[in-house]
């Protein structure tokens, strides 16, 4: 497979912390453009760390190469790395909204990477009309158009995550990375958000990589599953190749992450 055919490609990635703790040892994997990939593993397996290291966010990591849409991620300037990462939208377990800002303003913030720093993208009241329309459309798609002018601090956990998803999509990313996106929500809300999230990413023709402790989500919303254990990827299979019980016997935790 050519590097250019991949959204993300990593070759021989190793990571050892200053205290001598080895997290990964010569990991290889790639994600095709448009693919949906779930990363699973027990507590402490390094699932989230793997994602960050793959994007060059750990200076102490070593590899023979990391590429984002064919562009090298190693041995580049901080400015070049920031430019490349503009193609990536992030959704986290903690929603990281600005509490005092409205839902609409928080979504408008997603456009910051598309424009030079400007006060016009820091507040919806100052934003160009087309950006407000984009943001409102996304709020409508996540079911929160009626909460557009509510402060983020007034929203429930599920509503906050919907706003965070809309903000990430406002960036118009080619690749969306989600780190335990529904872990802080109750099971019902988590199921609703994960279904919505997967559908919206697909509608934007973006690639999706998500870390999940919920094995049913990995099976249901991914095309492919990567299993992390003992510092390596020891499973790489189609999402329909393994049952939830089979995955749980290897990667399940006694307690949730």
Poorly predicted sequence stretches spanning 5 or more consecutive residues: none
Helix amount:
25-40%
Shape: globular
**Strand percentage:** 15-25%
Main sheet: strand order: 6-7-8-3-9-10
Main beta-sheet strand count, sense and barrel state = 6 strands, mixed
Run of helices and strands? EEEHEEHEHHHEHEHEEH
What does this structure look like?
There is one protein chain. The protein contains 8 helices and 10 strands. The protein is an alpha/beta fold and 257 residues long. A 6-stranded mixed beta sheet has the order 6-7-8-3-9-10, with helices on both faces. A 4-stranded antiparallel beta sheet has the order 2-1-4-5, with helices on one face. A hairpin with a 2-residue loop joins strand 4 and strand 5. Helix 4 packs across helix 5 and helix 5 packs parallel to helix 6.
Give the gist of this structure:
The protein is of the alpha/beta class and 257 residues long. Helix content is 32%, strand content 24%.
Characteristics:
32% helix, alpha/beta, six-stranded mixed beta sheet, 10 strands, globular, four-stranded antiparallel beta sheet, 257 residues
